[in-house]
Amino acid sequence: MIKAVTGTKDILPNEISKWNYLESVVRSVFKSFNYSEIRTPIFEETSLFARGIGEETDIVGKEMYTFLDKGQTSITLKPEMTASVVRAYIEHSMASKQPLHKLYYISPMFRQERPQAGRLRQFHQFGAEALGSDSPMLDAEMIHMVYEILKRLGLKDLMVKINSLGIPEVRENYKKVLREFLLPKKNLLSEDSRKRFDTNILRIFDSKVESDQDLLKNAPMLINHLDEKSKNDFEIVKKILTTVKIPFEVDSKLVRGLDYYTKTTFEIVSGKVGSQNALCGGGRYDLLAEQLEGKHTPGVGFAAGIERILLACENEKSFNIPEEKLDFYIVTIGENLSEKVYEAASILRQRNFSVEFDYQNRSTKAQMREANKLNSRFVIFFGGDEYLSGMVSIKNMQSSEQRQIPISELQTINID
Ligand code: AMP
Can you give the three-state secondary structure of the chain, one letter per residue? Predict the structure, then answer.
């Protein structure tokens, strides 16, 4: 039997109401912050991600779905969205149209990771990017938006972690300080961390190995080496979060995997989803546009994993999704009425009511059972003597009240 590829998942009809609900919350929060949607292709030239994310990152180094197409172009299924959004921003000269663009997306992403709970190979993210301003208000806005979305989804067990990575010069200096600190201990580091020592030393902080974390205990912290501007901006971010009552914790070890971050980085973790506990991550990336050969364009953004958020909602039992209801179920009594029933359904559907009827010649009783299962607000009975005199019965399923109406009245019927 052919099955879905490892790490991919079907989203079946019984799960779709959760997805639709989450997406409606996402869209409505982004709308209230005046963000516009952007959709970019599922695949891009590989070099975009190699340059935009960084060759030494896990994503580019190990996890991308990359292949040569028939024209021998190296193509990659997008593993994240920021590089694609910035590419589109440069390609369409969006900067010339207005100074600040506030954009959001909801999209599948692809990473060849080892599948486990909360980690898939095709997964979905929603996220936002604000391009064209270095205001720390936007950094705070990112955290605020995603926090608001998670709150509206009913999640409570959340922790917001924030940090500042400063400007690149500061970070480069700090890397030297960290290198000096770790050099005498290098041989004691885990193999992965030893590699990172040479390629991306900040990422040693991400290590899950306990002995690595022990070695880092007294390490100098980047947050204590910040330049004045980064320090001030970080204070503003913290003040805004406090003003809008978003609890947060400064986590000076939060460096995140991507090379392009500057200044603010953040993550929101859930206490309810096991080891893969990050629901979202983001930060400022003032250098990315230049790395992609665009003009200097400060930017900030975040991405949140939809599957993980849904898992957290399930584990916190937070969802209170309005029940799906059908407006009308047409019960057919007797035979040879299929075109008439079809026509009546069509009249109601044109008026945007949701309508269902029987396709399988089932008994009246079985049809009523179906109407109940579908949560139909009204049942219309089509057939029998009343039908011969141009009438149908209509039953309000909540009050059980039933009345007869002329068939022609279906064209104007109102149910609210
Ligand atoms: P990142 O783009 O790595 O910062 O990830 C942002 C968010 O996307 C994470 O916090 C997760 O919620 C989600 N995410 C990342 N990778 C995966 C994956 N392989 N499977 C499911 N969700 C993921």
Answer: CCCCCCCCCCCCHHHHHHHHHHHHHHHHHHHHCCCEECCCCCEEEHHHHHHHHCCCCHHHHHHCCEEECCCCCEEEECCCCHHHHHHHHHHCCHHHCCCCEEEEEEEEEECCCCCECCECCEEEEEEEEEECCCCHHHHHHHHHHHHHHHHHCCCCCEEEEEEECCCHHHHHHHHHHHHHHHHHHHHHCCHHHHHHHHHCHHHHHHCCCHHHHHHCCCCCCHHHHCCHHHHHHHHHHHHHHHHCCCCEEECCCCCCCCCCCEEEEEEEEECCCCCCCEEEEEEECCCHHHHCCCCCCCEEEEEEEHHHHHHHHHHHCCCCCCCCCEEEEEEECCCCCHHHHHHHHHHHHHCCCCEEECCCCCCHHHHHHHHHHCCEEEEEEECHHHHHCCEEEEEECCCCCEEEEEHHHHHCCCCC
